[in-house]
Amino acid sequence: SKAEMGHTCRGTINLATANITVEDSCNFIISNGGAQTYHLKASSEVERQRWVTALELAKAKAVKMLEESDDSGDESVSQTDKTELQNTLRILSSKVEDLSTCNDLIAKHGTALQRSLSELEALRLPPDSTDKIKQVNERATLFRITSNAMINVSLRPEDPAVGKAPTSMLSAVSPQACRDFMLLAQTHGKKWQKSLQQERDQRIRLEETLEQLAKQHNHLERAFRGATVLPASTASTGGSGKDLCCPAKGDLSDEDDDNNEFFDAPEIFPMPDVMGHKRTGSNISGTSSDISLDEQYKHQVEDTKKEKRTRIPYKPNYSLNLWSIMKNCIGKELSKIPMPVNFNEPLSMLQRLTEDLEYHDLLDRAARCESSLEQLCYVAAFTVSSYSTTVFRISKPFNPLLGETFELDRLEENGYRSLCEQVSHHPPAAAHHADSKNGWTLRQEIKITSKFRGKYLSIMPLGTIHCVFHSSGHHYTWKKVTTTVHNIIVGKLWIDQSGEIEIVNHKTGDKCILKFVPYSYFSRDVARKVTGEVMDPSGKVHFVLLGTWDEKMDCYKVQLGTGDNGAEARPRAHEAEDNRVLLWKRNPLPKYAENMYYFSELALTLNAPENGTAPTDSRRRPDQRLMENGRWDEANAEKQRLEEKQRLSRKRREAEAARATEDGKAGLSDSDVPPRCPPQALTPLCPPGTPYDPYKPLWFERKKDPVTQELAHVYKGGYWESKEKQDWSLCPDIF
């Protein structure tokens, strides 16, 4: 609401204290003299002057209102609400004065009437009694008129009482005073009553939420206490591993509590003892509790290097008061809030980014297309397929540490290999590069911003994705849509995608517009619907795409006749079933995926230990490994240690940059003195005043893209050569 703008909207500038300066003919700057500055560019000098004049007038008005405000606590109330309140108080004061006047008149005429009546009683009906009686009647009539004016009893002009009263007496009374006051009080009383009721309803909802969470907590505790304890002989022979894969009560979807406890005995597979699944408070002892993480990692490499794993330890039952953590996050950037691993899945953001390659075969097929328009259809299907893994994935991935990497070498099996690196921490940004011997290269730099809005969480990926096909030289670019997680506090969590994606072929000018339709309770459309149109540079539609981002995408070739255009031909294309081509269909989830964070077959293999990876690889991250093994308490402690280590490293780099500047060794612009962000690094995510971190990524370098003219981190080479030599001397110690 408007009343919340002052204290929950970050990035705003108070006009009353703003500095408005003109830079040149079209540019001007608005700043609050601190950490917030906006550089604005108008289309012309006239347009710029209109903006500056309007802003100066608004500033003058804001300054005047600030001076008139006596209560410094009114900053949280919008100016519109202040004005409305002042007008209401002014009108109410006027009506109170009218009522006071009526009260004085009633008292005055009442006293006079009392005196006249006393005099009448003292008379013994002498000849002058007629005049006295007439005077009493006039007094009584005036009293009646005044009272009626106050309580608003309708008097007609032909009323005898009105006719007997002098005109001067009638004009002295304010009509409808009491009724106007009552109507005004009732109108605003209803408004205030509604606001009060909303506050009460919100409090009741919060109390119900806390009660529901408390019941869930008790339910999970009872389920944990009632869990079957393995015999001592079984536990001593690696039985702690079997405990990982038995579905536990309360761990599945909350749609059907009756089906929460079931498993097929033959599906239970023994995990190696070295996985060390150890639950706090449990009397099941793992044989690996005394083995270090490094030793566990070596053993796991031996167990998993022969074949890709198809199972991970089942997600344990741990109670958590969600509201106690999320209530302090409303309106904030979640990447800057420390969150326990209870909200996470045992994968990092780098590994989630690599999951975009699950349907790499779409790019393989696109590379073999001779028609650029057909190729664009497969690229569009690949774009949609990257969201198919998110439909059930309600847990957040680990935020990568600065310098953390993740490689996926599938050159022998699938013909591609991929590398990700965390190139920035604030704002968090990851660079990704994948090469395929089947004729394509995919690269991207994604910055994830997220905001918690109370009932839902918005995740906005920023950055451009590039796909280049080697033989044809076709270069495609697109951006990701917004992901929204609903029912954060109460109800079952669910995820939706919304927005538009524009895929452009920069060589031919071909374009595809994909529309992700947001879910609506009132819509009859299929849920998670995606529509698209593939068009040539002239705007003529050649293909229509239709499907859902969680299931499949179909393609229809538009049949153009004489005088037809794309818009007229589209319905006929949809009606022709023989014209439909299936571009992509989602792979089924593994069995018991609901107990393994709803991971796909690819996701299950991403965190499997591998030989020869860099020391900074996500597979070697200790808190993530502990969480995968079910040791969440230890994982939380390890996570805090890693984050503190990262903070100390950043402070050390900033201090070194400051010392280098003082010694005259830093070659930065004079207009911006370190350790602040240099001019070339200033963005909305790195505003003026942000401490300058002189960190440089190891495998990526920041360059200006010749196609999009954007600054982005591009793979500079050297990783796979270092892996072949097993020379990791340049890698930082981040774990």
Secondary structure: elements and pairs:
Elements: H1 5-8, E1 19-22, E2 27-31, E3 37-41, H2 45-68, H3 79-122, H4 129-151, H5 160-164, H6 167-171, H7 177-225, H8 232-242, H9 293-304, H10 322-326, E4 344-348, H11 349-354, H12 361-367, H13 372-385, E5 396-398, E6 405-410, E7 416-424, E8 429-436, E9 440-452, E10 456-462, E11 465-469, E12 475-478, E13 482-486, E14 494-505, E15 511-516, E16 529-535, E17 541-548, E18 552-557, H14 566-575, E19 580-585, H15 601-606, H16 622-628, H17 632-662, E20 700-704, E21 711-715, H18 719-725
Parallel strand pairs: 4-5
Antiparallel strand pairs: 1-2, 2-3, 6-7, 7-8, 8-9, 9-10, 9-11, 10-13, 11-12, 12-14, 13-14, 14-15, 15-16, 16-17, 17-18, 18-19, 20-21
Pfam families: Oxysterol_BP (PF01237)
Protein name: Oxysterol-binding protein
GO molecular function, one term: sterol binding
Description:
- The chain has 18 helices and 21 strands.
- A six-stranded antiparallel beta barrel has the order 9-10-13-14-12-11. The protein has a three-stranded antiparallel β-sheet with strand order 1-2-3, with helices on one face.
- The longest helix has 49 residues, at 177-225.
- Strand 9 (440-452) and strand 10 (456-462) form a beta hairpin.
- The protein is an alpha+beta fold.
- Among the domains are: 19-68, no CATH class; 322-560 and 573-635, Porin (Beta Barrel), CATH 2.40.160.120.
- Helix content is 37%, strand content 18%.
- The protein is elongated, with a radius of gyration of 37 Å.
